[in-house]
UniProtKB/TrEMBL annotation:
Classification via Pfam families: SPW
Domain SPW repeat-containing integral membrane, first and last residues per copy: 3-103
Descriptive protein name: SPW repeat-containing integral membrane domain-containing protein
Transmembrane segments: 25-44, 51-75, 87-108
Keywords: Membrane, Transmembrane, Transmembrane helix
Amino acid sequence: MALIALLGGWMIMQALVLDLVASQFYNDVIIGIALLALGGYNYYRRADEKFTSIAAASLAALLELWLIAAPFMFSADGGATETGNDFGFWDDILVGLAAAILGVYSAFKARDHREDMRRATPN
């Protein structure tokens, strides 16, 4: 989940650096903040020797699915506004794919870890 937090930071930074239209800018900043918070929360839980939150990992994956879809909705052919930067368009899609994969993987690993701990704990 630390990687998801880093991807969230990247989303905020690229939104500030690139020339994006307002809708894409705010979308990237909001998603970036959410990913930073979710990734940081799960990183804190792991550092405190607790289980990774399956809900936080799943929510991160869902947010990334939105991040993949959003550039198409903001594009000239599919949405209300035109994206201002081609790099920003593809960056959203690639970061969205990477973080969605990480979020799903993290959620499955956390679920498997919890099931293993339940089996190992005597009743």
